[in-house]
Design goal:
Strands 1-2-4-3 form a 4-stranded mixed β-sheet, with helices on one face. It is built from 4 helices and 4 strands; from the N terminus they run αβαβαββα. The protein is of the alpha+beta class. The chain is 35% helix and 26% strand. It has helices spanning 3-6, 22-35, 50-57, 77-80, and strands at 13-15, 37-42, 59-65, 68-73. A hairpin with a 2-residue loop joins β3 (59-65) and β4 (68-73). It starts with a helix and ends in a 6-residue tail after the last helix. The protein has a single domain, classed as 2-Layer Sandwich (Translation Initiation Factor IF3), CATH 3.30.110.60.
């Protein structure tokens, strides 16, 4: 998925005045397993640390714009390695 397509992605997680609770982090993890990329928005009066949310969810932070962030599922290192028969 390229950066231009992030704009077309609809937010599926909304963080309210309570902030990023454990329940919210669990929901982000669940959606990352299903969708691979999740867009998160939050209220103006809510202080959010995008890098902290990504670390808590075990996700890669792809983009932050205004009150919106995009997270992607982290790729495991072993999944990228393929054995070759020589």
């Amino acid at each position: 998925m390229n950066r231009e397509s992030f704009q077309d992605l609809k937010p599926t997680v909304w963080i309210g005045k309570r902030g990023a609770t454990n329940v919210m982090i669990d929901e982000i993890r669940r959606q990352l397993k299903d969708r691979k990329v999740v867009k998160v928005r939050w209220l103006r009066n809510t202080e959010i640390d995008p890098e902290g949310i990504a670390a808590s969810a075990g996700a890669a932070l792809l983009e932050v714009r205004g009150r919106t962030l995009v997270l992607a599922e982290r790729q495991s290192h072993s999944a990228g390695r393929r054995s070759r028969n020589i």
